[in-house]
Automatic annotation (TrEMBL):
Keywords attached to this entry: Membrane, Transmembrane, Transmembrane helix
Domain of life: Bacteria
Membrane-traversing stretches: 61-79, 94-115, 135-155, 167-188
Native species: Peptoniphilus harei
Protein name listed in UniProt: Uncharacterized protein
């Protein structure tokens, strides 16, 4: 039960930290920069994917994904500092292209995560009933983050009704559909997993 409570508390904090931060900035009269929206989106969805991997006990995949993020972050920072920010410092396409790239990476990661999950996969993080509750809760958190953070991005980064906005909306819908479909499938076929704690 302890792991389930930790997951619920941690994901709840993740889901609420940005809205609370926005309220506090509004009361203080501060403005929210585009970079904050961009960073919040990356941090929230990357973190939720990594936590989900831990729930599913995909430590090796988690490690590869984390290493990839570090390498990608290094090259992205070098690229934006040395080229994009000098040539396109005021170009709104910088955040648009960056956000869409992150979406594509998250979708690819999700597909790899789900396709490589085999029957009989060993799970020792939660009991079966706790696992089912966690999956439902992760869907709620993903839907809330998608709604709140996507709206912020649509207002400040994808405000123009151009091709970038359409791609962003499409990719976010694809991300949600894949996640929900995967969750429903595994909830219905929960017995495909081997729950170590239920055998103790």
């Amino acid at each position: 039960m302890g792991n389930l409570i930790f997951n619920i508390i941690a994901t709840t904090i993740l889901a609420l930290i940005r809205p609370i931060g926005d309220k506090l900035r509004e009361k203080a009269g501060g403005e929210i920069d585009k970079s904050i929206d961009f960073q919040s989106y990356i941090f929230s969805f990357t973190t939720i994917e990594l936590w989900l991997s831990m729930v599913f006990c995909r430590s090796k995949l988690n490690f590869y994904f984390f290493c990839f993020l570090l390498i990608a972050s290094f090259f992205y920072n070098a690229f934006t500092e040395d080229f994009l920010k000098n040539k396109y410092a005021d170009d709104p396409r910088l955040y648009k292209i960056s956000t869409i790239s992150v979406q594509a990476i998250l979708i690819i990661y999700q597909l790899i995560f789900f396709v490589t999950l085999e029957d009989g996969h060993f799970i020792d993080s939660l009991y079966k009933r706790e696992f089912q509750i966690a999956m439902i809760w992760y869907v709620v958190v993903i839907l809330w983050l998608s709604y709140y953070l996507s709206n912020k991005l649509l207002i400040r980064i994808f405000e123009d009704k151009d091709i970038y906005r359409k791609i962003f909306i499409t990719l976010q819908i694809v991300f949600i559909i894949i996640f929900i479909a995967f969750t429903i499938y595994n909830y219905i076929n929960i017995n495909r997993f081997d729950f170590y704690l239920d055998r103790m």
